[in-house]
Amino acid sequence: MRIGYTMMCEQADPRQLVRDVVRAEEAGFDFAVISDHYNPWLDSQGHSPYAWSVLGAAAQATERIPLMTYVTNPTVRYHPAVVAQKAATVALLSDGRFTLGLGAGENLNEHVVGQGWQPVNVRHEKLVEAVEIIRRLFAGGYVNFRGRHFQVDSAKLWDLPDEAVRIGLAVSGRQSCTLAGEHADLMIATEPKPELGEMFDAAGGRGKPRIGQLGIAYDTDRDAAVARAHDQFRWFGLGWKVNAELPGPASFEAASQFVTPEDVAAQIPCGPDVRAVVDGVRPFAEAGFTDLALVQIGGGHQDAFLDWAPKELLPALREL
User: Fold this and answer.
1) If I label 238, which of 99, 138, 192, 256 is the partner at 20 to 30 A Cα–Cα?
2) What share of the chain in percent tops pLDDT 70?
């Protein structure tokens, strides 16, 4: 399993995100992912810069570390033709180190453009059309497309990498796993459920990479780590059927008001104990994930984490 670092746009400004990914590369992380949000999950996180500008800067500031969106919605806030152009540009800036992670999106980020929020079946239909448009543009030449949800008129990407950008799709249930198995080069998930991989395999994903994500709160003071994880990450336990539908940080505040610090600590490794993180990673390994991106919770606590990771955490995880 490759171990990655997460540039969490909701908890740091763009300058810090670039500095942190440079440090992550120096620390020996195998890859880096970035969230693509318009809003933070909770007001206490306090940030949400434009992920694609950060990616361009990160591509130039780093030398070897692969980069990936985790994940971009190519159907509402962005048109798929524009996503294809952005992805091709970042792939060139990074000398081929970029993977395009896509998903059906969350109301939290997509409602801002005034198009409302459609049922999940419609969102999945739009996602399939978007992937087709993006792949056709990656293939070169002019593209015309007339679908149920999207239209493209004589679009062409004038700057393309030598190899088409890999596309990953986020999954959380049977329908999304089927779409990913049929249309994606890799599977993306935040939960280590073996059944997700099984459904992905059954739909054509066998042998393709599976990329997961795990939030952790490193701190020498475990109580401080639990408090920080509760303050900024208690929304995570609501599950994606809820997380995809709520419209703003105030909604997540209300939905998570009864989540206790103990609840969060039961789901998220908190404190300085490497074994707790290893225990959190193990279910992903057992479920067949090939890659796992860690989220260090708290924008102001990255330096300590990036000091600790190469000395203790990464060696322990590589033993696993």
Assistant:
1) 99
2) 100
Helices assigned H by DSSP within the chain: 14-27, 51-61, 80-93, 107-110, 120-138, 174-183, 194-200, 222-233, 240-243, 249-255, 261-267, 274-286, 302-308, 314-319
239 by Cβ neighbours in 10 Å (0-12 / 13-18 / 19+) ranks as exposed
Phi, psi of 103, rounded to the nearest 5 degrees = -155, 175
Please check the confidence at residue 320 and state whether its pLDDT lies above 90.
no
Question: Is the distance from CB of 36 to CB of 110 less than 8 angstroms?
Answer: no
Structural domains of the chain, count:
1
Distances (CA, A) of 99 to 63, 111, 147, 162: 16, 25, 25, 14
Known catalytic residues are 37, 106
Q: Which CATH number belongs to the domain containing residue 179 in this structure?
A: 3.20.20.30
Contact (CB, 8 A) for 186 and 209: yes
User: Dihedrals φ, ψ of 253, to 5°?
Assistant: -60, -50
Hey, what are 218's tokens?
Answer: 């490193």
Domain range for 145? 2-319
Give dist(CA 136, CA 32) in Å, integer.
26
Query: CA torsion angle for 42, 251, 169, 30 (degrees, to 10)?
Result: 10
- The three-class DSSP label of residue 315 is helix
Find, among 101, 65, 94, the residue nearest to 210 by Cα: 101
- The angle at the Cα of 198, spanning 192 to 203, to the nearest 5 degrees, equals 130
Q: Model confidence over 259-268: pLDDT tens digits?
A: 999 999 999 9
Residue listed under structure tokens 């908890």: 11
Q: CB of 165 within 8 A of CB of 138?
A: yes
What pTM, to 2 d.p., does this model score? 0.98
pLDDT digits (tens, 9 = 90+) for 4-20: 999 999 999 999 999 99
